[in-house]
UniProtKB/TrEMBL annotation:
Residues 18-129 form the Gfo/Idh/MocA-like oxidoreductase N-terminal domain. Residues 159-320 form the Oxidoreductase DRL-like catalytic domain. Its EC number is 1.1.1.3. One of its GO terms (molecular function) is nucleotide binding. Gene3D superfamilies: NAD(P)-binding Rossmann-like Domain. This is Homoserine dehydrogenase. Pfam families: DRL_cat, GFO_IDH_MocA. Keywords: Oxidoreductase.
Length: 438
């Protein structure tokens, strides 16, 4: 977003830099640290928290910062910031508590841990940038209610496919078209992948095998498209999305969708496998004005009724600091739920599962996630994928079946379960209220 560069230069010139704390120093966190430190004047990454402090330390060292201080308390962190020292800590909560930090980046991919930290950050009035679609797609709508009440920005990030889709969606809408499809372009989708099959790929790129498995097995893209649906009011055409395989360019895909069906659904989120430009995103939109359609044809966008717009890449961590600047300087959010959830990610058996087994985390061996419209998820009592890890199965579940709340015993005392329950009650009650008033 072009306006950000000058706004940050002005911040740098005035000495009023944006102070950022980051939670999570894995593959993405390391990249974000490098970006803020070396490519974003006007922004300072004052502290990194990670459960293994070495990784937080490494993130600074790899970005060229040697002088790093370990802190354990809020006061130690405040002193480090005041004296211009970069800080690392195992305690994420002190990043929430210090007054000096303007915004937090949460980049763990962990649902329960992320929920705890983000609730604390909101309570202490920090703007929050989530690079955690897994959490956002599970309890984002209720977190947004808390953030709004606290007067802070809670947003998904630029750079990853949801944020890139949303920026393109806003552009397309702002020039007068009506977006009807937000799409994600994938190279591979195979729900049966697991950390063993993905081990070589993970090792080649220095990533975690379970993380890249969640990309290959469709779970991550389901979270990505769920949060785009929640931010646009769109739905899915069917459980698991349409997910066409297509070898050409997305421009040639417009004819594969029924525009009337898209309109009836209020627009859909979807993905395509194998198309170009990969790994980009696309928006299909219509225009009601025949005069403007004439110009669109002249500008080589075709005959309509669906016009294709795309961004050919998603640059993940490269863009995340932009979201921080948008939140802090302009109170602008990249992507946040509009209201009640539109689409959820539901837990599906990757293999035949047996009663008594405990479900392993996202991207492991037992389950994969699929998108489903939220009203169906509610009616069928389906288990959100973001809550599945740690649940104990009460009965056998055949491969490719969806799992319901009735099929499991939840672990006790999790914040994410409490928030999910609150989310269902909050939005279901408000829908009932609206219906009663009509
Ligand atoms: N890896 C990618 O290419 C990529 C691209 C786009 C978005 N993302 C998203 O970014 C997020 C992070 O991904 P990553 O690849 O950096 O993961 P990662 O596993 O490399 O790093 C995650 C970090 O969070 C910490 N963490 C994880 N679970 C935790 C828990 N329960 N409690 C405390 N700390 C915990 C880990 O210690 C680790 O440092 C995820 O939401 C992922 O979907 C990743
Ligand atoms: N969106 C990617 C993961 C990281 O961006 C994918 O599903 O392949």
């Amino acid at each position: 977003m072009i306006i950000i560069d000058r706004a940050l230069e002005a911040r740098a010139a005035s000495g009023k830099t944006i102070k950022v704390g980051m939670i999570g120093a894995g593959f993405m966190g390391q990249g974000i640290a490098n970006q803020i430190i070396n490519s974003f004047p006007g922004m300072e990454l004052v502290a990194i928290s990670n459960r293994h402090i070495n990784a937080a330390h490494q993130a600074y060292i790899r970005a060229g910062i040697e002088d790093v201080q370990v802190v354990k308390t809020k006061n130690e962190l405040s002193t480090a910031i005041a004296t211009g020292k970069y800080a690392v800590t195992e305690d994420p909560m002190i990043l929430c508590h210090v007054a000096e930090i303007d915004a937090l980046i949460e980049v763990t991919g962990a649902v329960e841990f992320g929920a705890q930290v983000i609730m604390e950050g909101i309570a202490y009035r920090k703007h929050i940038v989530m690079m955690n679609a897994e959490l956002d797609g599970t309890i984002g709508p209720i977190l947004k209610i808390y953030a709004d009440k606290a007067g802070v920005v809670l947003t998904a990030c630029d750079g990853d496919q949801p944020g890139v889709q949303m920026n393109l969606y806003r552009f397309v809408k702002s020039i007068g078209l009506k977006p009807l499809l937000c799409g994600n372009i994938k190279g591979l989708q195979d729900p049966y992948r697991n950390p063993t099959t993905q081990a070589d790929f993970a090792q080649k790129w220095g990533q975690k095998a379970h993380m890249v498995t969640s990309f290959a097995d469709g779970t991550k893209i389901s979270f990505e498209q769920a949060i785009v649906a929640n931010g646009t009011g769109m739905k899915v055409a069917r459980r698991g999305m349409l997910g066409y395989e297509f070898k050409g360019h997305v421009d040639e895909l417009t004819k594969m969708y029924d525009v009337n069906e898209l309109k009836e659904l209020g627009g859909i989120v979807d993905y395509v496998v194998g198309a170009q430009p990969s790994p980009g995103v696309f928006i299909f939109a219509t225009h009601d004005d025949p005069q403007q359609c004439h110009y669109l044809k002249l500008y080589k966008l075709g005959e309509g009724p669906l016009y294709s717009f795309y961004t050919p890449y998603h640059l993940c961590h490269f863009e995340v600091p932009i979201s921080v600047a948008r939140a802090v300087i302009f109170k602008d959010y990249v992507l946040a739920p509009l209201d009640a959830p539109m689409v959820d990610v539901v837990t599906t058996a990757k293999i035949n599962l047996k009663a008594g087994e405990t479900i392993d985390p996202i991207g492991y061996y037992m389950t994969y996630g699929q998108c489903e419209n939220a009203d169906i998820v509610y009616k069928q009592n389906l288990l959100p994928m973001g809550l599945a890890a740690g649940c104990c199965l009460k009965r056998d579940i055949p491969k490719d079946s969806v799992i319901t709340y009735d099929d499991v015993r939840l672990p006790l005392g999790r914040v994410c379960d409490r928030l999910r329950h609150e989310q269902s009650s909050y939005f279901h009650a408000s829908k009932t209220l609206v219906a009663a008033k009509q």
